[in-house]
Design brief:
The complex is a heterodimer of chains A (about 525) and B (about 110). Chain A has about 525 residues and is of the alpha/beta class. In chain A, about 45% of the residues lie in helices and about 10% in strands. Classes of the chains: A alpha/beta (about 525), B mainly alpha (about 110). The structure holds iron/sulfur cluster.
Chain lengths: ~525, ~110
């Protein structure tokens, strides 16, 4: 096994098994790091806790719900409340955050009373919202408050409300991934099947593992609706609580982030016989294959082919404009979980970037299998890296850009590596054909930003050139580009709008597409 | 033969996701479901797709067969028997990479 030992981690020998180099001829039977294990003491992990995974990744994107944490305010506020999973109800779930505000005295005397009081207060403050999710934290789990009993009490007093309880305290698992699992299973157990589905099409899917980061789900919904397909529920971005209670009414589960949501798909298959189709919503070719598969399932392939043709014609010249300018640039693909494999191959193929490293904070070995299988030879694969390791990797690999989350991203900036936020996104959406071009545009803007030329100069020792004027991105990116490509009229940079979502949301879809043609079974 | 299998294997590993479910039993079912139907399609034989479950395997198989045919011209010159033995070898290889030779320790976990 081509293990990779970081110099900074020689004092933590267990870390050695968490990084491998994908060398020539290596495959999954010889190169796979450990994964989803408890963080090793002494290694300062960048992972989130299991409460965070349940609430901030999966629970909170549900849009018409009061999401209340039973614990100290710090749990809900200091974790990931700022993730940009927007919704079409004025971002209700993002604008407000709730905690039962546990303090020391509640640890001694119990916090069920204050929990009930705060739940009722929250419902009264937002009288139009009739749904609530309740999340356990370390503090409330350790004192053993019976949240289910309190929830039942409130539902008895307020018969028009429905409450979902998620018992996933921070310590329940090595990382946020433990929370993904818990909430998936709790939702199918407690809520799916409790509302009758409202079926409006002969073609019905659940879109699962999609969190509507900066509107990803809006773009994908548009493609499905253009094919006449009803998205009965989205688990959970822009998803509605009651729609998600009716997931059992779909014909097919279309699964995007298998890391966070394969559990509910597997359960839907076992309990309701709904099959699971794993797809990629990123990248022209994988997305086209995915749309085609969903359409084939319903016998409407030509509708997908039409969308693929139109979208490719519209956006490919823009993608290729960036590809020409990003060719051979080195990228560290360091998202949290599933994007490492969604992007590992296609970002190389369609944007010309060389993936020099993949990492995951909370992924399992399964995610690394997909990532290592897809990335090119020579990449360094790291599981749950600590900050010193990421710095060492960046200094050694000299990437032109890293794509990651906010915490490691800020570290990268300090050592002057351009970084793009691919958790909450910079200027998403990044899914769909247009989204993929927006990602290419953001990567291009980051790599060629003139600020990085200036930032590399150290005024305390470097000579500062005074004979050079300003530079623009275009001057930097086109300096060594072949003239024919630089001035090609077939290619162009992104021409979409700053906010591209309203156009998608204003589309109308012909009703007849939702009915199977007569004679079709 | 080895060379040809490697080409097909690379395509699956870079483009597909169906082979990476989370447990041994799951992966066995997936590999069998998709690759059996792909073989049938490549051989021009009927591949069942009436039930929802069969249909789901079938859509992956249709796309895989198309990709194989368009990228590997040599496939179009093979007869049915040759295709069947090639696909059996490919399945053995995918089973090895994703199940029998896999280093993924979660594959045998009884819970998921
Ligand atoms: S680990 Fe526990 S205390 Fe910390 S944020 Fe998570 S739930 Fe709260």
């Amino acid at each position: 096994m081509p293990l990779h030992e970081f110099e900074c981690s020689t004092c933590i020998p267990e870390r050695k098994k968490h990084a491998v180099d994908k060398g020539p001829g290596e495959d999954l039977t010889s190169a796979l790091p450990e994964g989803y294990l408890n963080t090793i003491p002494g290694s300062i992990s960048e992972r989130g806790c299991a409460y965070c995974g349940a609430k901030h990744v999966i629970g909170t994107p549900m849009k018409d719900v009061i999401h209340l944490s039973h614990g100290p305010v710090g749990c809900t506020y200091d974790t990931w409340q700022t993730k940009r999973y927007i919704s079409d109800n004025d971002n209700f779930q993002l604008k407000y955050t709730y905690a039962s505000d546990m303090k020391e005295k509640h640890i001694v005397f119990g916090a069920e009373k204050i929990l009930k009081q705060n739940m009722i207060e929250a419902f009264k403050a937002f009288p139009k919202i009739k749904r609530m999710t309740l999340y356990q934290t370390c503090a409330s789990a350790l004192i053993g408050d019976d949240m289910n009993a309190v929830a039942q009490d409130v539902m008895d007093e307020m018969p028009d409300v429905d409450i979902f309880v998620c018992n996933s305290p921070g310590f329940k698992g090595p990382s946020q991934s433990g929370g993904h699992h818990t909430i998936n299973i709790a939702w199918i157990k407690d809520k799916v099947g409790t509302v009758e589905p409202k079926i409006t099409s002969d073609y019905v899917i659940n879109y699962v593992g999609e969190y509507n980061i900066q509107g990803d789900e809006v773009i994908m919904q548009d493609y499905f609706k253009r094919m006449g397909i009803q998205v009965l529920s989205t688990f959970t971005g822009n998803g509605s609580y009651d729609d998600l209670r009716a997931m059992h009414g779909a014909h097919l589960n279309v699964l995007e982030c298998a890391r966070s949501a394969e559990y509910i798909c597997n359960e839907l298959r076992v309990r309701y016989g709904i099959p699971r189709l794993d797809i990629d919503g990123f990248g022209f070719e994988p997305l086209s294959d995915s749309l085609r598969k969903v359409a084939l399932f319903f016998g409407i392939e030509e509708r997908a082919l039409q969308i693929i043709k139109e979208e490719t014609a519209r956006w490919k010249p823009e993608l290729d404009w960036y590809k020409e300018r990003l060719q051979g640039k080195k990228i560290c693909l360091w998202p949290g979980g599933s994007k490492l494999w969604h992007w590992a191959h296609v970002i190389h193929k369609e944007m010309g970037l060389d993936v020099v490293s993949v990492y995951t904070k909370f992924g399992h070995q399964q995610d690394m299998e997909k990532g290592i299988a897809r990335c090119e030879e020579g990449a360094l694969a790291i599981d749950d890296p600590n900050e010193l390791e990421t710095i060492e990797a960046m200094l050694k690999l000299q990437p032109d850009i890293i794509v990651t989350g906010k915490r490691p991203g800020e570290v990268a900036k300090k050592i002057r590596v351009p970084y793009l936020n691919v958790h909450a996104y910079h200027n998403g959406p990044y899914k769909g054909y247009e989204g993929w071009v927006r990602l290419a545009r953001d990567i291009y803007n980051a790599i060629y930003s003139p600020i990085h030329r200036l930032a590399l100069l150290d005024i305390s020792k470097d000579e500062i050139p005074t004979d050079k004027g300003f530079a623009t991105r275009r001057m930097l990116s086109d300096a060594n580009l072949n003239e024919e490509i630089a001035s090609s009229s077939d290619l162009r940079p992104y021409t979409g709008k700053y906010d591209c979502l309203p156009d998608y949301m204003n589309h109308t879809y012909p009703d007849e597409l939702r009915k199977k043609p007569a004679g079709d079974n | 033969m080895k060379d040809r299998i490697a080409q097909l294997e690379t395509y699956i590993m870079k483009h597909c996701l169906w082979q990476f479910h989370s447990r041994v039993w799951d992966r066995k079912r997936q590999n069998e479901g998709v690759l059996t139907k792909t073989t049938q399609i490549l051989c021009g034989e009927p591949a069942a797709h009436e039930t929802l479950e069969d249909r789901c395997y079938w859509v992956d198989a249709v796309c895989l067969a198309d990709a194989f045919k368009s990228r590997c011209q040599w496939l179009n010159e093979m007869d049915k028997t040759e295709i069947k033995s090639l696909m059996q070898e490919l399945k053995n290889r995918i089973d090895y990479l994703t199940i029998d030779g896999s280093l993924n320790k979660e594959l045998t976990d009884v819970n998921y």
